[in-house]
């Protein structure tokens, strides 16, 4: 292991998904504009190449955010990194316009993200997982951070990089229901396409658990893709609920909403999250929901039952052997328990916000938490730290408790990246903005 770092970066980033990609773009534009000395930046991504939820890149699925809320547009409409610039570069601008849509396909948006990431490849290292962050103390002050990067998944292959600022954007972690683990036949929605690609025989019975967007998309996909298989969908709701993407409600994702949410009292924050959970959590795009109902009804007309819905039902166990999975399912209104068998079970059980400073060891104690144990974060996304920390630690994606519903989504990515860049540049040029408690 190397013990010293020759360079002190202005900013190092953990993760190179859309959040840090948007930041890299903002940094690149800053350097092109030559308005100030550009920040010296480098990002680490543990995947071997750029990828945005590849396991769920289902053909035909669409984005749940308008294409104008891309990596740059709302920060700088003249950016060469907008979705429109991408379309122009790909010679598809006119064709896209003729389409008259606001929501591109996910496959196309992924291609856009890859296109942008490829333009900035000198700012990112792939196959590079950050496994530890430790403080560099000078005269009793934490002046820099040392970021330990593991290469190629090899625990003995480490490098250390030193930085003034760290921007942590690790995304969310897939979660399984309590007591249920992933296996060859028990999958999480995030891995569904990878798993299907490796199937050695065609399953006859799939079960999809959950009533959110991913579960509904997978149900439709399996029903389309495996023409002879039965597809059973189990969820504890009475039925799928439609996502609210109406215009007034959509304002909850505006940049202004972040300001308002940030300054609100805790009870108001909680109220807003509850009011508008149905924009994002456990809901399904209305078109998809209608499509599933239509398929189901057509099967009833034909006297078929290849697509089955078990509502108000909860899966309590999934025990897999070599050939199948045994599910324990309770019908909630009566409490009746049933045993069901399936070849494959896919859980659309969502994601959680993992502790973003889990790599920090003892140094984590210098990051201040609120009475609920959550990190205190300044409006500019900088973690509040004790007085003796001079370096900046910024969060992207893990700030729903402080900055609201758009934190885990793409809506505000471009604007947030600009705000973080501004904060880091200001600090470098004016020496130290206050983020202390
Ligand atoms: C299937 C699906 C569809 C979605 N569709 C939409 C949508 O249409 N609209 C919308 O607004 N939101 C959508 N989302 C929400 C999603 O969270 C955001 O789109 C987006 O991925 C957030 O970007 P991010 O960069 O913060 O996180 P991510 O995209 O998750 O990227 C984080 C990156 O960090 C890397 N990483 C993690 N830990 C480390 C480490 N220690 N070292 C190095 N690298 C690390 C990961 O490999 C990953 O590439 C969707 C989510 C899913 C799962």
From TrEMBL:
InterPro entries: FAD/NAD-bd_sf, Lys/Orn_oxygenase. Pathway: Siderophore biosynthesis. Its cofactor is FAD. GO terms for molecular function: oxidoreductase activity. The keyword Flavoprotein applies. Gene3D superfamilies: FAD/NAD(P)-binding domain (3.50.50.60). It comes from the Bacteria. Keywords: FAD, Flavoprotein, NADP, Oxidoreductase. The keyword Flavoprotein applies. Belongs to the lysine N(6)-hydroxylase/L-ornithine N(5)-oxygenase family. This is FAD-NAD(P)-binding family protein. It comes from Collimonas fungivorans.
């Amino acid at each position: 292991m190397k013990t010293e770092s020759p360079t002190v970066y202005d900013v190092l980033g953990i993760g190179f998904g859309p959040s840090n990609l948007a930041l890299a773009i903002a940094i690149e534009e800053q350097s092109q504009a030559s308005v100030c000395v550009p920040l010296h930046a480098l990002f680490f991504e543990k995947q071997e190449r750029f990828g945005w939820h590849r396991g769920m890149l289902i053909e035909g699925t669409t984005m749940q955010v308008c294409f104008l809320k891309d990596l740059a547009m709302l920060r700088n409409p003249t950016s060469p990194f907008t979705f429109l610039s991408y379309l122009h570069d790909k010679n598809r601008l006119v064709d896209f316009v003729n389409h008259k849509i606001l929501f591109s396909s996910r496959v196309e948006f992924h291609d856009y993200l890859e296109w942008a990431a490829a333009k900035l490849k000198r700012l990112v290292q792939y196959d590079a997982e950050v496994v530890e962050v430790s403080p560099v103390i000078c005269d009793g002050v934490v002046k820099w951070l040392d970021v330990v990067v593991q290469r190629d998944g090899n625990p003995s292959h480490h490098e250390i990089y030193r930085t003034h600022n760290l921007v942590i954007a690790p995304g969310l972690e897939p979660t399984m229901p309590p007591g249920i683990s992933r296996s060859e036949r028990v999958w999480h929605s995030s891995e569904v396409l990878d798993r299907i690609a490796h199937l050695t025989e065609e399953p006859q019975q799939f079960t999809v658990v959950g009533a959110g967007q991913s579960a509904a998309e997978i149900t439709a996909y399996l029903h389309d893709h495996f023409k002879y298989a039965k597809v059973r969908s189990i969820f504890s709701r009475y039925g799928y609920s439609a996502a609210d993407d109406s215009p007034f409600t959509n304002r909850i994702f505006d940049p202004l909403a972040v300001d308002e949410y940030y300054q609100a009292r805790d009870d108001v924050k909680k109220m807003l999250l509850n009011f508008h959970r149905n924009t994002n959590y456990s809901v399904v795009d209305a078109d998809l929901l209608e499509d599933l109902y239509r398929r189901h009804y057509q099967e009833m007309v034909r006297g078929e039952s290849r697509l089955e819905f078990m509502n108000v039902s909860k899966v309590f166990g999934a025990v897999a052997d070599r050939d199948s999975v045994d599910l324990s399912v309770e019908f909630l209104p009566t409490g009746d328990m049933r045993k069901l068998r399936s070849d494959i079970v896919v859980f659309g059980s969502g994601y959680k916000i993992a502790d973003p400073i889990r790599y920090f060891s003892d140094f984590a104690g210098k990051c201040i938490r609120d009475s609920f144990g959550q990190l205190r974060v300044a409006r500019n996304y900088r973690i509040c730290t004790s007085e003796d920390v001079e370096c900046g630690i910024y969060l992207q994606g893990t700030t729903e408790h402080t900055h609201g519903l758009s934190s885990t989504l793409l809506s505000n990515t471009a604007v947030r990246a600009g705000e973080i860049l501004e904060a880091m540049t200001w600090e470098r040029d004016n020496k130290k903005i206050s983020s202390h408690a």
